[in-house]
Amino acid sequence: xxxxxxxxxxxxxxxxxxxxxxxxxxxxxxxxxxxxxxxxxxxxxxxxxxxxxxxxxxxxxxxxxxxxxxxxxxxxxxxxxxxxxxxxxxxxxxxxxxxxxxxxxxxxxxxxxxxxxxxxxxxxxxxxxxxxxxxxxxxxxxxxxxxxxxxxxxxxxxxxxxxxxxxxxxxxxxxxxxxxxxxxxxxxxxxxxxxxxxxxxxxxxxxxxxxxxxxxxx
Length: 218
Prior knowledge:
The structure is a single chain. Helix 3 (29-36) crosses helix 8, helix 9 crosses helix 13 (200-212) and helix 11 (169-181) packs across helix 13. It is built from 13 helices and no strands. The chain has helices at 2-12, 16-19, 29-36, 41-48, 52-55, 75-87, 93-102, 106-117, 134-144, 146-149, 169-181, 189-195, 200-212. The protein is mainly alpha-helical and 218 residues long. It is 54% helix and 0% strand. The protein folds into two domains: 8-15 and 25-123, Cytochrome Bc1 Complex, Chain D, domain 2 (Orthogonal Bundle), CATH 1.10.760.10; 126-212, Cytochrome c-like domain (Cytochrome Bc1 Complex, Chain D, domain 2).
């Protein structure tokens, strides 16, 4: 962890032109500041009130896929995605308005992420897929996704790979489409290469499998 923080601090000192040439999981100086901030989950809970109308009070999102489950997601992942949206790197105009209004500083993002990451993940509120292509999805996931997102879909907070286990099926499918078709904005180029040749049945299968995975035990 110490080395991780040192790397973040070093990246924060890079000029923006240099940062633009770093890998997809590299950080802007603002994101680095947020990761180094002393987070206040209580204040994060207050900030999240403005987001409850979409993401629900318990931050479990919507099975429709319109809004992801944020509860239990890794704090570094949440920080990176929120600030990518605010900077315009990730295309999400509706959420950008909320981020601009309510998470105006790196400390705000750190506080909200600390609150959200500590919330439980109630499995009875996760929208599952059809269940008919889980076996095919597992084969694709093990071959193409596990190296980054973990063998059980647990993600990797030190590399900003999100937990995909126990995420809503329809949200996963939507984002896979965005990544494959170039509509997300901040997609990891390596993931784009992997997903680009996927047919619709492949996207459905891997989303079906990821949604069915239980979240990691804390």
